[in-house]
Design a protein that fits this description.
The structure is a homotetramer.
Chain A (H helix, E strand, L loop, with lengths): L3 E9 L7 H11 L3 E9 L5 E9 L10 H11 L3 E6 L5 E6 L4 H12 L5 E7 L5 H6 L4 E3 L6 H12 L5 E4 L8 H6 L4 E5 L11 H8 L3 E8 L9 E8 L6 H24 L3 E4 L2 E4 L2
Parallel strand pairs in A: 5-6, 5-8, 6-7, 8-9
Antiparallel strand pairs in A: 1-3, 1-4, 2-3, 9-10, 10-11, 12-13
Helix pairs in contact in A: 3-8
C-alpha cells in the first residue's frame, strides 16, 4: 500500500517557462519529498503547461493539511491551478444503472479483484434488474421510486448521494440527466456512450451504425456536461464489424467495448491520471 | 495466372430459399465448371440472398460470351441480379490527385509489386506535385489546365477518361465532384476520406478531430455518390492518438491510415469482392 | 429460436471439384431443405475442400435421424467427412478452474445474457475460490478432493464428467492434463493460454514477456492436445504495453484479453463454426 | 525549426530520490534554460530512475560545448549516465537492403515528406533491385561487389560507412551481420524482423506462422546485438489473418506491418526518444 501524493496542475505559458519545474521540485526537496514520477505536457497551442507529479509521503516533513498554505507562494508566482490527491484516500463511488447490467457487473467484478481502488457506496437503478448482482457484491441497491419522473428521480438521487460521493458512474444509465444534477457533480460524472463519438450521438447508436454500414463500431467514455454526449472524452475504442453482423451482433460486440472503455475511464479517474481543460482530457498513463 | 470467373449476385427471399444455390451450382456442373470458392450471405433483414461464386474456366465448356444467354432461365427463375467478372481481365484505372501525393505514391508502389491487378492508364492532377512520381512509374500525368474552374475541370476529365476507364480512384483529390460526373461513373469512383465517417464530414477532419479531443482518428474509403461523404463505406480503420499529438501529428498518423484504407478498397474492388446494396457494401474477404 | 442443421465437412480435391457443392445442395433441395448460409474454403495447399452449410429444418422432409443413411451415397462419392449439428441441441459444458476466476466469472455472465447457447452442467475447481460465484449462478461446484494429486484428480474428474459432457473449458485451470484425460475428450477441451503462442510457452508467460521487453502481450485459445500449448489455435488477440507497465499491469491487462479470447472460442465452438484439420482451425465467422 | 536540447539519462535509486529532478531543473534554470518537456520513469524493479528532458536553447546562456563540464557536479552527485542530443543536428543514416525494397521505398518516401529528420547518406544493397528507387530519390546506391562473401561484404561496408554514420537501418537486409560489424555500431543498427518476436525467430517467419496456424501475424523492430533477433525491442505490431490467407497473403499483409513498425522505430531513434537498458527500450512518446 503506497503512501504518496499526486499533484495535477496547470500553469500559463510563458510564465511556466521561467522555471516552474525547478520551483516545484525544489519545494518538494526542501521538505524532503522524493519525486516518484513526473510527466508534463505543453498543450499544442503552447499556452498552457500541464503536469502530473507524484511524490513519496514517507519522510515528507510537511503535514499534508498545511500543504496549501506553504505551497501558496509557488502557486502564485506561476499562477498554478492544481488538484492535490492522496493515494491513501479511497474515493466514494456511486453507480447508476438501468436494465442492461453488463457494465455494472464488470465494474463490480473489477472492484472485487482490487483493480478499482475505491469504495462503491451504492447502486441506484431505475430498473430492478441489477438488484441480485448488487446483493451478491454486498453493495446497497436503491430502486428509484418513480423512475418515469425524471425531475423527481434526480431529486431522490441528490438526496441519496449527498455531498459525500466523489464520483458517479453511469453504467448504461438510459436517462439524460438535467443540468442542475450535472452542475452538482461537475467533472465527477462519467458516462459510457455506445458509439465512437461524435458519430451517432443520441439514441440507438448501434442501429444508427448498422444503417450507415460502418465497418467498425465504437464506445466512448466521457465526463458528463450540459451538452448531450458532448463532454470531455476520456477514452474510446472500436471493434471490427462486417456485413454478417446483425444489430444484435453489434449490441453483443459493443458490450465488450463498453465494459473496457468505461472501466478504463473509471480507473484513470480514481488513480488521479486525468486533467481536464478546454473540454478535453489529458490522461497521464 | 488463374483463369476463373466470378459471379456477384443477389436474389430476393423467399424465392432464393427454393434452391438458388442448388440451381446455380447445378448449372455450373452441367457445363463442367468446378466451383473454387463460394460465400453467401443472407442480409440481416432477411430480404435478400447475396453471394459470391468463383469457378475455374479451365474445362468450362460454355464460351463465356454465351454465359448470359444460357444462364438466363436460372436468373429469371430466382430473379437474380448479377455481375460477371473474369480474372484474366485487367481493369483500367485512373487516379485523381491534388497536392498530397502519399496515397498516390502508395498505390503506384503496390501496383509495381503486383498487389493491384490492373492497368493504371493515367493520373490527373489539379496540382503539379505528383508529376515526377508519375514519370518514375511511367504512367501518363495530366495537369488540369484550369484547376480552379470545377465545371471546366470535370469536362476536361470526362474527355480524358472516356468510357474505357473501369475505376477512378480519388487519392486525396481535394475537389468535390459534381453530380453529373459522379453519375457517369456510378459505383466506379472510390474516395478516401480522412476521418472515421460519419464523424467529421467535410473539410479539415483532422482539425475537427483535434478540436473535439477524440482518442482515435480514422479514415474511410467509400464509393462516391451525390451525397458528400455519404456513399457506401468499403473500409475503415483507426489509430490511437493522445493529448501529446498536435494537428500535425494527426496528419502524419492519418497518412498511414489513408494509404492502408484506400489501397484495401481498391484491391477488393479489383478482385471483385464488393457487392453494393442499400447504400452498404458486402465485402467477401 | 431457430431450427436449423449445420454441416461441417471436408472433401479431398480434385474429387470435390467434380461438383460437391452441386451434389450437396441438390440433395438438400430434393428434401425441401432451404440453405440459409454456406461458406466454403479451399485449403491453401489446394488439397482439401472445406465447407460449412446451414439449412432450415422447417419443411425439411427427411427425419434428421435418417440423414446419415440417405446422405451416405453423396458422402461416399466425394469422400466427404462431416459433422452434423442441430441448432436446437444445447451442448453440455463443464468448466475447470483454479484460483483465478476472471474467465469463469466472464463465461457465467455471458451465459446469463444468452450469449453462450449451452447448459453449464458443472464447475470443477482445484481451489475453492470460485464456489460463491458458482452458487450465485446456480451451477454445481465440485472441489477436487486431492488437488495436488494429478492422477487422482483426473480420475475424479472423469467420473464426474462421464460421457455426457460435450465441451470442457479450461478457464485458467493451472494444471497440465495428462494424455489419457485429453484422449477422452479429443477436440472437446478448450484452453486459454496467457500469451501470444507460440511465444512464451509454459509457465509464467507474463513474466517471460516482461523480461523480454515486448511491446504487445497476447492471449491464445486453443484445443488441448498431447503437446503442451501446441494444439490447434482457435483465436488470439493482443494489447499494447509499454515500459511503464509492471508485471502486475501485464497481468491486469491480460485478464481482459483472456476473457475475450476464451469466450470467443467457446461461442464459436458452440455455434459449430470451427473445423479442425492439420492441427489448424478454420473458423467460419 | 526548433532549437532544443534533449537529455536522456538514468540515475540509480535510492540516490535519485534525493532530488535528482530538482537538481537538474535547478541547473537548467540557473542557465536560463526553459524546460519544454520532461517525462520520467522509475523502472519496475525500482532500481533506476530514467528520464527524458527537453529544453529550449534560445536564451540558454551556457554554450552547449561547455555543458558537460558544468553539468559534471550534478552528474557525479546522482551518478547520472546521460546522452545529450541537439535538435538542430541532422543524423546521418545509411540503409542496407536486399531484394525486397518495400521498407526502403517507404523510408525514402517518408524522408521526402520531412517525416524523418535526417540525411540519408547512402544505400547499400547486396542485390541491384533498389538502384532505380535510390536514383529517383537522389541517394547514392552502392552494390556490394561480392554479396555472397559475408566477411568481405562487411569489410566493404565498414569502409564505406566509416565513423560518420549515426544510424544503420536494415530495411529487410537478408544477411546476418557478424559480431565485429555489430560491435562497431552498438545500438546504432535497427532491424525489422517479420514476426512477432520472440515467436518465429530466424528464417521464413511467415511460413512458420502459416504452419502453426496463428490468427495474427506481427513484425518487430529492434536494435541489433550479437544474439540473433534477440536485441532490445523498439516496436511491434500485428495484423489479423485467417484460414483464407495463403503464405503469399501473409507476405503481403506483413509488408504493411514491416513498413509501419520499422519507420516508427527509425523516427523515434532520430527524435531521441529511445533509452536502452537491460536489453529493453524505454520509448518516450
Amino acid at each position: 500500500m503506497k503512501n504518496t501524493a499526486v499533484l495535477l496542475l496547470s500553469s500559463p505559458m510563458p510564465l511556466a517557462r521561467k522555471g516552474v519545474v525547478a520551483a516545484i521540485s525544489q519545494f518538494l526537496v526542501a521538505h524532503n519529498g522524493s519525486i516518484l514520477h513526473s510527466d508534463d505536457h505543453l498543450d499544442p497551442g503552447r499556452d498552457l503547461f500541464l503536469s502530473k507529479l507524484e511524490w513519496d509521503l514517507d519522510g515528507f516533513d510537511l503535514p499534508i493539511s498545511e500543504f496549501e498554505e506553504h505551497f501558496q507562494p509557488v502557486a502564485e508566482r506561476f499562477m498554478i491551478k492544481y488538484h492535490l490527491a492522496l493515494s491513501d484516500y479511497r474515493p466514494k463511488v456511486a453507480i447508476l444503472v438501468s436494465a442492461y447490467d453488463h457494465c455494472l457487473a464488470d465494474l463490480l467484478y473489477r472492484h472485487s479483484t482490487g483493480e478499482l481502488a475505491c469504495d462503491i457506496v451504492g447502486i441506484i437503478g431505475n430498473h430492478p434488474t441489477a438488484k441480485p448482482l448488487a446483493d451478491f457484491h454486498q453493495v446497497p441497491f436503491h430502486l428509484l421510486t418513480n423512475p418515469q419522473d425524471k425531475r423527481e428521480s434526480e431529486r431522490e438521487m441528490l438526496e441519496l448521494l449527498g455531498q459525500e460521493v466523489d464520483l458517479i458512474v453511469l453504467a448504461r444509465y438510459m436517462q439524460i440527466l438535467g443540468p442542475e444534477f450535472v452542475g452538482q457533480y461537475l467533472l465527477r460524472i462519467i458516462n459510457i456512450h455506445h458509439s465512437f463519438l461524435p458519430a451517432f450521438i443520441g439514441a440507438k447508436p448501434y442501429h444508427q451504425a448498422f444503417d450507415r454500414g460502418v465497418k467498425l463500431i465504437g464506445a466512448t467514455s466521457h465526463y458528463v456536461t450540459a451538452t448531450l454526449d458532448g463532454g470531455p472524452i476520456i477514452e474510446q475504442d472500436v471493434v471490427r464489424v462486417s456485413h454478417r453482423d446483425t444489430v444484435d451482433d453489434l449490441v453483443r460486440k459493443g458490450r465488450d467495448l463498453e465494459k473496457l472503455v468505461l472501466s478504463r475511464a473509471v480507473r484513470w479517474h480514481l488513480e488521479n491520471r486525468i486533467l481536464v481543460y478546454q473540454n478535453k482530457t489529458v490522461v497521464f498513463v
